[in-house]
Amino acid sequence: MTLLSRLLGVRPAVRHPVRVRRDVQIPAADGVPLPATHYYPAGVHRPPLVLLRSPYGRGNPLDQVPRILAQRGYQVLYQSLRGTAGAGGRFDGFVIDPADADGTLSWLRAQPWFGGALATWGASYLGYAQWELAARQIPEWKIAVIQDAPSAFAEGFMYPGGAFALGNALGWVQLVDTMFSGDFSLVRQFLAVPAAGRKLRRASATLPLAEADRALTGHRVSWFQEWIGNGPDQAYWSRMDHRAHVGRMPPVVHLQGGWYDFFLPGMLADHAALLAAGRTVRLLIGPWGHGKGLYTRDGMRDALAALDAALLGRQAPSGVRVFVTGANRWQDLPEWPPAHEPTPWYLHPGGRLNRMHADPAAGPSRYRYDPADPTPTVGGTTVSMSSGPADNRAIEARPDVLTFTTAPLAREVEVIGPVRVRLHARASIPHVDYVARLCEVSPRGRSVNLCDGVVRLDPASDIRRDSDGVITVDIALWPLAHHFRRGHRIRLQVSSGAHPRYGRNPGTGEPLATTLALRASTHEIFHDPDHPSALWLPLTERNS
């Protein structure tokens, strides 16, 4: 019995002794060797097999999932993708060579110990690799257990709202470079932690951006250069878009995400597409940042329940289960999003936010954004241990951040579903960002972020433009399930930056990778009857 099994409360009814075969060499379809570790329960004849495909190495002593699965009676094949951890070929970021899966499946079907029942499992890149696997028909595939990984990479991770996700991009570059340069040694990774934050901050401030990878790692990273050299609409990203594979996913799919995971919107879109394709889908969303849910009791228990049911021929759990932050409870829902009433909370002069319509005499709120001193951000959906809720008061005190806040709530307010903001704005230049962040303010004044969103605009953006230069800006924030307590306040932040989570908009319209110039801008946010800027929250039946 592993220590993790005890901590997570997932002891199997029958605990099987685990045997391990290391450095199993699997040929890709083009002959490139892909090493794997094979875990199997002693004395069990041709049990179902769980496949994990990873760029992050094998045999990490902290990764106990293969042993947990093998103790439950499953085989586990933990494979390295090409260019990683002893595998041949070249690693190419989030572009996965199809020869890897083609060769692995052919090899697997030829093994006498393979019983013909296949499951896949994994978080983040390991989940994304499952979507790539569905590029071909796999009749043996019974269930995919996917945590924190959407089918499309560019929209959810790299260019949300059209803004380059600089902090997350560089954070992943640093993570991978530390693993690769340290030969996947856990000790070397831990030793690199103290200096990691300083290096990442320095790289995030580098201009031109094409030099950021060198500032971070000391060398050029080819796939980072491609990321910053290809805008969100470029054909380059099609190689990392697996949404067309939905019809070849297995009959059962378990999706697990977190409210503070940058991949969550993409996973929710996948959830809808899988249901439309006739799949049985379980959706679990917890109060976690990226990759953290699997190692919780709720996350592991739910995933194992789905795996056991699908591979043992029983009805797999389906439906939606979410954690309601603020109330600290789990809630089962009939669907996502649940029935709700999109309700506007209007912005007013003096930083007020309420349900009343705007005052005809209301003048605009103003701020100035300077990319040379970009508006920072804390917490939220970041590739770091500091993701999640954080105190935003220091940021809200800056002159380049507007806040609009309700009076203390007279009663509790619960919101579950999509969140959006509509701003009526006027900027001094056409190349601008708008960032909206929803927070809850405690009676003592602590302002904690719940969700946010960004949109990047230029002269070609498809938005409404009035003759007086006022534009209508719609911002989709991350979805949420949150319970605002009585006496607390709802707050909306409005700014033009959230650095380094979203790379600063230089304001010049020049290419992202090479620009050195930075151009400041002034902004007006209107909140009169003709320009009713508002936050739209999904009120649930619990509010009635």
From TrEMBL:
Keywords assigned: Hydrolase
Coiled-coil features, chain-numbered ranges: none
Xref: InterPro entries: AB_hydrolase_fold (IPR029058), CocE/Ser_esterase (IPR005674), Galactose-bd-like_sf (IPR008979), Xaa-Pro-like_dom (IPR000383), Xaa-Pro_dipept_C (IPR013736)
Xaa-Pro dipeptidyl-peptidase C-terminal domain span: 304-536
A single GO molecular function term of this UniProt record: hydrolase activity
SMART domains (UniProt xref): PepX_C
SUPFAM superfamilies: alpha/beta-Hydrolases (SSF53474), Galactose-binding domain-like (SSF49785)
NCBIfam families in the cross-refs: CocE_NonD
Protein name per its UniProtKB record: CocE/NonD family hydrolase
Organism, as annotated: Nonomuraea recticatena
